[in-house]
Amino acid sequence: MFNPGAGAGKAFRQFASLKSAILKRHPRSEFLSTRDPAGARAYVVHANLSAYDAVVAAGGDGTVFQVLNGIYGNAHRCPLGIIPLGTGNAFAREFGLLPSNWKSAVARLDPANLKRIDVGQVEWEGGTFHFLNIIGIGFATDAGLAARKLKFVGRSAYTLGALWRMLRLRSYPLEMQLDGEEVRQHNVLVEISNSRFTGTSFMMAPSAELDDGLLDVTWLGEVPRLRLLHLLKALFSGRHVAYPEVQTRQARVVKLEAPSGYLLMPDGEFEGRTPARITCLHRDLALFC
Known about the structure:
Elements lengths: L9 H16 L11 H10 L8 E5 L1 H12 L7 E5 L17 H6 L6 E11 L2 E5 L2 E5 H10 L8 H10 L5 E7 L2 E13 L3 E2 L3 E2 L11 E7 L3 H11 L10 E6 L1 E6 L6 E2 L9 E13 L1
Parallel strand pairs: 1-2
Antiparallel strand pairs: 3-4, 3-14, 5-7, 5-13, 6-7, 6-12, 7-10, 8-9, 10-11, 12-14
Helix pairs in contact: 2-3, 5-6
């Protein structure tokens, strides 16, 4: 599944070389090109996946998200491969893959490189979906919405989006449960991580592991703008977790109860609203990595 619009259109120029490299290793491969995320999900949902060894998502985090949910909507769950061609590719960074490393990603499409990893499952009023990387609300969602309009600048889009939303910083009353333990406070953001990175290179959850059966929850209380700027700088190395305003916890099940109706941002996409129940599905998916 190839998204030619990934990486602000750079993926389109790489397609011929990418296709040739894949066919050299896997001559029976089939290719589908689409710029429509919803269409990509629908295609995978209705495909006869039992006829294939794997589905490969070639694009950005959004492409991976849609293909993943297509796999989970199909009666046959086959392994997933990722070729990073997008702006951020935060999840691929977990395996040391950057958009310039697509040749390395192709080389990893081998049964010897399959690993079972955890998957996040989100249940909300409108249904159920899954994610691999991270899901956020609050400042993270606001910054993501701003970054979507700035994708033409490339990898700096999310950083610029975060700086822009910082000028309009707001907090909200948070209510959530972490494996039944209640948390109530005024909050700026909540991030629920399955892997370490978000955005382009923010290390949101430095201790996250992909196969431990747990989600890493990070939340930030009320802070002034200048303090938030320091926190954003610390995010690049994961040092933000040492700040007293930042709290972290691990949980298998997270219930986001308030603020009600708040938009969720899974894996750089926008789907679902609070209240929501988020569960870690332990080693539920086979991934080439």
